[in-house]
Design goal:
Shape of chain D: globular
Number of domains of chain D: 1
Oligomer: heterotetramer
Order of helices and strands of chain A: HHHHHHHHHHHHH
Number of helices of chain A: 13
CATH topology of chain D: Cytochrome-c3 Hydrogenase, chain B
Distance between the termini of chain A: 53 Å
Radius of gyration of chain A: 21 Å
Number of helices of chain D: 15
CATH superfamily of chain D: Cytochrome-c3 Hydrogenase, chain B
CATH architecture of chain D: Orthogonal Bundle
Number of strands of chain D: 8
Order of helices and strands of chain D: EEEHHHHHEEHHHHHHEEEHHHH
Strand content of chain D: 5-15%
Strand order of the largest sheet of chain D: 1-2-3
Chains: A mainly alpha (362), B alpha/beta (146), C alpha+beta (165), D alpha+beta (376)
Structural class of chain D: alpha+beta
Radius of gyration of chain D: 23 Å
Helix content of chain D: 40-55%
């Protein structure tokens, strides 16, 4: 469904097209991130029986803008014995990949900046560059807590990359193509129904990658004070903060595109569907952040290697088998089958699998 | 009801075991010599009938002519308690045997008495100042501190 | 973590937080909405009744920090103590109320008002004139229940009272 | 440049990583510092450093009359100042042999048990927040604590440093609207506690984080004279309200919850159960609250006979004792506080050794200390 009221390469010359739409998407993403920061603080507050920001502007809408302005005016301290260059470069390396991800996310029917035919592969590649940035931040600040935080971040991302990629492969098998447009087009039945286990693995893995609760060990405020962004202040801290929320927005967008059918929906216009679904996924992330305590580092690793990774392999196996025996009637027949398999697998796996070397008796 | 054992009948039992150990036994407390404090304390802790396994509190008092350290002992099984006291008379460098070997509860409390009264406990694992910083000279809770 | 109960515990916890979306928040917007403090609140000021005070100085002795400075002079006319200066240093005072309890002549009260912050430390010292009972500087019912009746009823969270707008 | 040395044995010496969980740390419940030597994430050794909040309360106590010391005891364990007042007044009454009227005894029990619930709410709330649930448990529990503080505000005019109890009774009687408000609170509170249980009691992540973590074995607990929920968490059934009943606790029937393994989860469970038991005591205390005097005839400047006395109560954080020596003057000659939280910390180094950084915060949080009482 191409964009009707504008020809695809509207200003004729490729570079003009690229420049205009890059700016539009950049502004749109930054606005969405500011909206999400406000949304998280309000949702978190209401769930904790309090109000949340409501002083700056109506319902506190200008609060993120006020924070951004305040952060720009704050002094930018660089630790004395820290590695100056690495400390200065880290926020950039952490923030830019997050923006790059949005080049491939299909916001609307035809509205996609670069319709790569290897869309999802590009996203997975780019999203692991942020970890390098975060490690540089931890290392460059010459601070014990931030080094610990950075080490934890690298450990968790390395071990969660596997289940995330494998669950994405399951989706690609069903969609038949890597391009995001095709994935959305192939989703007559949202893949969350066809791939319940895949969705679960991807969601848990993604939470660990953007280190949100229950896996926010990197900047675990009760242990490591603020993890890698202790020594940052001023605009650099602002960039790191935007990177974290940008990643949360990116993950919500990817989950919507891969599993919830992107912008496809019955009545509402398609761009509104995209916003509603992204908002819904982000609400679930905030909801989890309010309630669930943090996991310890060894449990985090054991969960990845002993629980998610084997299940991801099994999920891939089952999806491949289903592809082979493609049913004549319609894919709907797979939905109950897959959900049953998912439940059976989780129950079986949690029976035999003891985390914490079997010491933990519940 | 925690039965507070009277110092007198405990003194009679101890007098047989450690002659000359008990200095004076009032109704509710038992004053013992500093030298024989450890044996008496070990006796109180290990004899089956007494079993004082729970050292509730250790407090120091400065009576100007002597320092007094008061041990409140309790036995969780028999639910009875006893007050054990020792005194040391020199004021410049008072020393007393430490009971940390018997009850680890005395660890921080003895460090506190050493910090605020200046009584050094021989045999204490790490006798350092607990509340005041290393460079602080003088011991605040002594009556002649100000 | 054993998922033996297959994430039921986590689901129950999530149900508690989601239910809070439907409940009214508990916060009171302080400057606009105000909660009435208790009728016996020990506000951050003292109120002194000049005529009842006989200058005996019991309150100065009762204060364990010595925040009350009182000096009396002999009034030859009707032959009784006349209080020359009576100052309370609210910078030192911890509002424990011992002086109010010690005063034998019911001349000293805690104030009901809690917004007496000052910009300069010197203004914290309350002189003789600023301690009279005025309509806006009300007396709290601390230790004198009789005076508590006139004060507004305390707003309790137990009654879901979040203060009027 | 081939390495000629055949089997040059590479010595990798990693010196331990010393981290300061310093006085200023989000989860040290006050200004408490732990010098921790780390091997990677695992704790090798820990040395506690005290004294950042040492105000010399025991020295101040020696210059004040027996009534003027009461505001000082408010500031010992500032989260449970009603219990501090009660312990001090009991010790002075034991020293001077003063009788307390019936109504005052009942009011004291009501205030002490309400204070136990308020203190446990903070303890459990901050323990769960240290586990990582982003502030939600502690915000819910502070909301409940707010209801208790309203009741205390109604009775004595302050919300934290109450200065409510006096030697020989209580300073003022309760107003009329206290009883209905307390009854309403007692009706609602069990519902709130059930809600906390549903929030995190069977949460798999919390169980994995706190079950079997930071075990304080039974005999070590007795050896370091731990008290309160820390001792009962290790399975020792010792509660001063039952073992050595002071004031009128022998008239109420309630039971003492104890843990089994002595790990963080048991201590958390013991505190939650104790809240329910306190509600039970409060219901009985309300039923037969007699009328009458609230304070016996005691001179403002009491002169207890020369001598000494040791009175202790079951404060929310443990066995809080006051050792008073009087020389017949109006000021105590020596005023020593047996701080349960300082003594509960004796075994912190053993409980932490071998666990990870994330566990130190949980173990330390489950001991529930208050620096005002530790440093005095």
């Amino acid at each position: 469904m191409a964009m009707t009221w504008l020809p695809p390469d509207w200003p004729g010359n490729f570079w003009a097209h690229w420049a205009i739409f890059a700016v539009i998407i950049l502004v749109f993403v930054l606005l969405m991130v500011l909206m999400f920061i406000w949304f998280e603080r309000r949702a978190l507050a209401i769930m904790q029986a309090r109000l949340g920001p409501n002083r700056a502007g109506p319902f506190g809408l200008f609060q993120p803008a006020a924070d951004a302005l305040k952060i720009m005016l704050k002094e930018d301290i660089v630790p004395a014995k820290g590695d100056k260059l690495v400390h200065w470069l880290a926020p950039v390396v952490a923030f830019v990949p997050v923006l790059l991800i949005f080049a491939v996310v299909p916001f609307r029917g035809g509205a996609i900046l670069a319709d790569l035919n290897i869309g999802i592969l590009y996203i997975l590649a780019i999203s692991s560059v942020t970890t390098v940035g975060i490690f540089m931040a931890g290392w460059g600040s010459n601070n014990k807590y931030s080094t610990l935080g950075a080490m934890r971040q690298v450990a968790s991302v390395v071990s969660y990359e596997m289940p995330v990629v494998l669950s994405v492969v399951g989706v690609i098998l069903l969609a038949g193509s890597l391009s995001m447009q095709q994935i959305v087009a192939a989703q007559d039945i949202p893949f969350i129904l066809l791939q319940p286990l895949g969705f679960l693995l991807f969601f848990i893995g993604a939470l660990a990658e953007i280190n949100r609760t229950p896996f926010d060990l990197t900047e675990a405020d009760s242990e490591l004070v603020a993890g890698f962004n202790i020594e940052y202040s001023g605009m650099k801290f602002g960039l790191l903060f935007l990177a974290e929320y940008g990643e949360a927005l990116a993950i919500s967008a990817i989950v919507t595109t891969l599993f919830l059918g992107g912008w496809r929906g019955p009545i509402l216009p398609d761009w509104l569907w995209f916003l509603v679904k992204v908002g819904l996924v982000f609400f679930v992330i905030v909801w989890i952040r309010t309630t669930i305590p943090r996991v310890r580092i060894d449990q985090l690793m054991a969960l990845a290697w002993k629980f998610l990774f084997p299940l991801a392999l099994l999920n891939l196996l089952i999806t491949a088998a289903e592809i082979l025996v493609w049913p004549a009637v319609s894919l709907w027949v797979f939905v109950p089958v897959n959900i049953a398999i998912a439940i059976v697998l989780i129950v079986l796996w949690s029976k035999f699998f003891k985390l914490g070397w079997g010491k933990v008796e519940v | 009801m925690t039965l507070a054992l009277s110092g007198k009948d405990i003194a009679k039992q101890i007098e047989k075991k450690f002659p000359g150990g008990v200095v004076e036994s009032a109704a509710e407390s038992l004053l013992v010599e500093a030298e024989s404090l450890l044996e008496i304390a070990a006796y109180l802790k290990n004899t089956p009938g007494l079993d004082f396994d729970y050292l509730t509190a250790v407090s120091g008092v400065d009576y100007l002519d002597c320092f007094e350290v008061v041990y409140q002992l309790t036995s969780l099984e028999h639910n009875h308690s006893l007050v054990l006291k020792t005194r040391c008379y020199q004021r410049d460098n008072p020393t007393l045997p430490s009971v940390v070997g018997l009850w680890r509860a005395a660890d921080f409390q003895e460090r506190e008495i050493c910090d605020l009264f200046g009584i050094s406990f021989t045999g204490h694992p790490n006798l350092k100042r607990i509340f005041l910083w290393e460079g602080f000279e003088g011991h605040p809770l002594r009556k002649d501190f100000l | 973590m054993k998922f033996e109960r297959y994430g039921l515990g986590i689901a129950k916890g999530l149900s508690v937080t989601i239910r809070h979306l439907l409940r009214r928040p508990v916060t009171t917007q302080y400057p606009e909405q105000r909660l009435n403090p208790s009728r016996r609140t020990r506000g951050n000021e003292l109120i002194w009744d000049k005529d009842k005070c006989t200058g005996c100085g019991t309150c100065a002795k009762a204060c364990h920090i010595g925040a009350i400075h009182i000096s009396t002079s002999t009034d030859l006319v009707n032959n009784k103590y006349e209080v020359k200066s009576y100052e309370v240093d609210t910078g030192y005072c911890i509002f424990c109320g011992l002086c109010v309890e010690a005063c034998p002549f019911e001349a000293l009260f805690m104030s009901y008002d809690y917004e007496r912050a000052q910009y300069r430390r010197g203004d914290l010292v309350q002189g003789k004139e600023e301690m009279k009972e005025t309509p806006e500087r009300k007396v709290s019912g601390y230790f004198y229940p009789g005076r508590a009746a006139k004060l507004p009823k305390q707003s309790l969270l137990v009654d879901n009272d979040r203060g009027k707008r | 440049m081939a390495t000629t040395a055949k089997t040059k044995e590479i010595v990798v010496n990693t010196e331990p990583f010393v981290v300061n969980f310093g006085p200023l740390h989000p989860s040290t419940h006050g200004v408490f510092r732990m010098k921790i030597t780390l091997d990677g994430e695992v704790i090798v050794d820990m040395e506690p450093v005290f004294g950042y909040l040492h105000r010399g309360i025991e020295k101040l106590g020696e210059e004040r009359t027996y009534t003027q010391v009461i505001p000082l005891t408010d500031r010992l364990d500032y989260l449970a100042s009603m219990s501090n007042n009660l312990a001090y007044c009991l010790a002075v009454e034991k020293l001077a042999g003063i009788a307390v009227p019936e109504r005052a005894e009942y009011l004291r029990v009501i205030m002490a048990e309400l204070q136990r619930i308020a203190s446990h709410l903070i303890a459990v709330g901050s323990f769960l927040t240290d586990c990582g649930a982003f502030l939600t448990p502690v915000v819910y529990m502070i909301r409940e604590r707010e209801r208790i503080l309203d009741l205390f505000d109604m009775v004595c005019g302050q919300r934290l440093t109450y200065n409510y109890m006096r030697v020989g009774g209580v300073s003022q009687d309760i107003p009329q609207e206290f009883m209905p408000a307390l009854a309403k609170f007692l009706r609602e509170m069990p519902g709130w506690i059930d809600e906390y249980e549903r929030l995190l009691k069977e949460n798999e992540i919390l169980l994995a984080r706190s079950k079997g973590v930071g075990i304080l074995p039974r005999d070590l607990a007795i050896d370091i004279a731990a008290s309160g929920p820390v001792l009962r968490g290790s399975g020792v059934k010792w509660d001063i309200r039952k073992a050595d009943p002071y004031s009128i606790y022998d008239r109420f029937e309630f039971d003492i919850p104890t843990g089994t393994a002595g790990d963080c989860y048991d201590r958390y469970r013991v505190r939650v159960e104790e809240m329910r038991q306190s509600l039970r005591i409060l219901r009985q205390a309300i039923k037969d609250l007699p009328r009458g005097e609230v304070r016996s005839e005691v001179p403002h400047l009491i002169r207890p006979p020369a001598g000494e006395a040791y009175g202790h109560i079951e404060a929310p954080k443990g066995d809080l004792g006051f050792y008073l020596v009087s020389d017949g003057s109006i000021a105590p000659y020596r005023f020593h506080v047996r701080a349960p939280t300082l003594i509960n910390l004796t075994a912190l180094a053993d409980m932490i050794r071998g666990w990870k950084i994330a566990d130190t915060i949980i173990i330390f949080g489950s001991i529930d200390i208050c620096m005002g009482e530790v440093d005095r």
